Amino acid sequence: MEVPNVQEIIEKQVLTVAKAVEDKIDDEISALDRLDLDDIEALRERRLQQMKKMAEKRGRWIALGHGDYSEIHAEKDFFSVVKASDRVVCHFYRENWPCKVMDKHLSILAKQHIETRFVKINAEKSPFLAEKLKIVVLPTLALIKNAKVDDYVVGFDELGGTDDFSTEILEERLAKAQVIFLEGESSLKPSNSTAKTRSVRQSTKSYNSDSE
Hints:
Blueprint: H1 6-33, H2 37-63, E1 69-71, H3 75-84, E2 87-93, H4 97-112, E3 117-122, H5 127-132, E4 140-145, E5 148-154, H6 167-176, E6 198-199
Parallel strand pairs: 1-3, 2-3
Antiparallel strand pairs: 2-4, 4-5, 5-6
Organism: Rhododendron simsii
InterPro entries: Thioredoxin-like_sf (IPR036249), Thioredoxin_domain (IPR013766)
Pfam family, one: Thioredoxin
């Protein structure tokens, strides 16, 4: 029985793939060739409108405080902040080293992800909120979408378990929760978080800060 020539088989497969790619490129070129000036102008106008809408959206975000990592000083202001923005990352902190580490990373991400509001609030000075949202370990990030706490990042366990995690690791965790968007991506699959979604209006019961 004649043994097939492996090299010939591979060459045929490569040629088949190359032909398919070439055909696809030819189709795309043909589609472009069929565009008349009106089509090109319509595409240009559509793109300009998209850019205009994005500029307007960025302007609204900046007016709401997006782009900066700021502190909420009064508990009552928390509610107006989360209602004003579709996506909010709120750092419940105390004056300790782990929270300062989290501050460093959030300051960077706030500038990179203008689509999301980044804020912090002192948990020890906000007992009502801390109890309401069951904040126990500090630091804790409440990931809020449409005025509801959708997920939490508690301590550093999900970030490698140490305080030397990179900003990118935190960024990926926030993107997984869809509270930020990675560059070039308009949507990500929702995380399978077991954290129960809680409205900021829902009451809860307990709060203890960590001892570090």
